[in-house]
Amino acid sequence: MADKLIYANTRAITKEVGLFSKERLARMIESESLPLAVKILYEVGYGGGLVLSAPDLFEEILAEEESRVNTFFSEVNQEGFGLECFILKRDYHNAKALLKAKYMDIAEGFMLLPKGIYPIEILKAIVLEGKKDINPYMQEAVAKLTSLESAPPARSIDISLDKALFKDINNRLAKVKDAAVLQYFTMLADYTNILSFLRTKKIGERAAFLEDCFVVGGKVGLQGLVKLLDEDIADIKKAIKYFGYPELEKFTEAENFSAMEAAIDNNLIRIFKEKANDIYSAAPLLNYYLQKLNEIKMIRIVLVCLKNNTDLEEIYKRMRVIYA
Hints:
Topoisomerase I, Chain A, domain 4; globular
């Protein structure tokens, strides 16, 4: 297993050299037109060298690049490190997409992502046919939603499957000993619950609403967050710092959720970036994988802005949020 992990990490470190630099991203931002920005993707062989029939179809090349990185990640998956938990989110996203297509007359192909652990046909068997003995957490959530007398709203679909996702991850992590991986998912659960708390507070909802959104796997308890619903902003900031997440303090008062989510993404990536030289852990592999997904997200934002003729200063402002 050690040899396979070292080999996987070596491949990831080699691929990391090809990640977009801030300079290359700046070149794209300052391109005079969308076709010139897309040309930069051609120069580096993005999407495996895919050439678009029109520049405004850039989503095709980004989807292909994301599919390639997920294929690589799946190929080098190592047992015992919980790496499957990082791609499991795709399966739950696709389960949501299938349910929304079923109940809301939305084309499923518009929302589906390339497969995570399970092929789309397997997910259809769970979601559309009620097939059992594949994934108990997903199956339980889907069964509850499909047993309702009326079509479940989008919020219920999202919440039910998000809660199932974290239960699924928590179960898979029971045999994982990699400290960085465990830290990542503990923080992810806490971040998810803190954001849910702040949104609950903002719209004036109460404990039942927060409990409905609460996911397992973190160190911050539900009751600790419920007690904060009646506190003022100063006490909330102190509590968030006490929970161990002082990096979220500065965003709390302004209720800047976009900036907060960007800071969260960067903090989670930093867990593996700081340990990227440890080839006997999963850190180098996860450092590349998460940075690559973040790169694709940034490129997508830039291209959408260029397509919509967004002001250059506004594009840089959005990039500063991503680099928070």
